[in-house]
Structure formats: structure tokens, C-alpha cells
Amino acid sequence: MMRTSASPYTFILGAMGLIPFLCATYLSWTNQTFFDRSGLYLFITYGAIILSFLSGTLWGQFVHRESSPLSIYLLISSNVVAVAAWFSLLLDIQVLSIALLFLGFISTFWGEARFARQNHSENSPYLTMRFVLTLIVCVLHLLVFYPSY
């Protein structure tokens, strides 16, 4: 069964995870750098790391479940998303990197929500938190994407 509990630590760490996205967005919009790296570069690299982390959490959910068509799909998709996150770092066109990461964040949430629905835990506080965090991250992707496009 998928863990649906959300401790205060989960909420705090989730919220703190937004700070680098917010800072990188600010740097991107103001054309400033941090350690000689552009805000766009920082946004993309941090996004790839977080997306890989989220893919790992999907993998972890598979490990603790009995095999089913959905759980196998979750396992395979978590690997595809992790490789896509890595691939986003290799692209020379930053706008494509942002778009790929944006789709990856939506995909991981969609997979997790679908998995929660199967386990009748779609109204869990954890999934609500994940929705809000994913929504904020996706809006920040659009804000970073906009001036680049």
C-alpha cells in the first residue's frame, strides 16, 4: 500500500525544496548570476535533480507493492522520466530543457495520482501537498520559459 501520510517534515522539506526554484527564477528574470551560472542554468540543473528524485520515489513505491500492470507501468515510467531529466542537461537549447522538465514534473505527479486513485488514497494530505508543489513548480517553469521564448 502506498504511504499516504504526510508528516510535518514532509511539508517543510517540500516547501524548502521550492527555494532554489524561486531563486533561480528570480535570477533568470533579472539576468543575474550565482557562482557565474545563469538563473536558467541553475533552474534546469536543479529541476533535473528534483525530477530524478521524484522518479526515485515512484520506484520506491513499486518496490513496496505487489506487481500489477499499473505498478509495472510506474516502474518503467519512473526510469523514462529519470533518463529524460538527465537528457535535459545535455540539450544545448535551454527552452527545450525547460519544456522537457515541465512535462516530467506533470508526468510524475500524474503517475503518482493515478497510483493513489488505484489504492483509494487520492484524497491524502501527501497527494494534496504534491499537487500544490507540482503546480508551483510548473508555474515557475512557465515563468522561466516565457522570457526565453
Please give a structural write-up.
The protein is mostly helical and 149 residues long. It contains six helices and two strands, in the order H-H-E-E-H-H-H-H. It has a two-stranded antiparallel ribbon. The longest helix has 25 residues, at 39-63. 28% of the residues are buried. The mean pLDDT is 88.
Global mean pLDDT: 88
The total strand number stands at 2
The level of helicity is: over 70%
Overall body shape: globular
Radius of gyration: 16 Å
Oligomeric description of these chains: single chain
> Structural class of the secondary elements?
mainly alpha
Q: What strand order characterises the main sheet?
A: 1-2
The helix/strand series, from N terminus to C terminus, equals HHEEHHHH
Largest sheet: 2 strands, antiparallel
Number of helices: 6
The fraction of residues in strands falls at under 5%
Low-confidence sequence ranges: none
Distance between the ends: 43 Å
Keyphrases for this structure?
mainly alpha; 6 helices; 149 residues; globular; two-stranded antiparallel ribbon; 79% helix
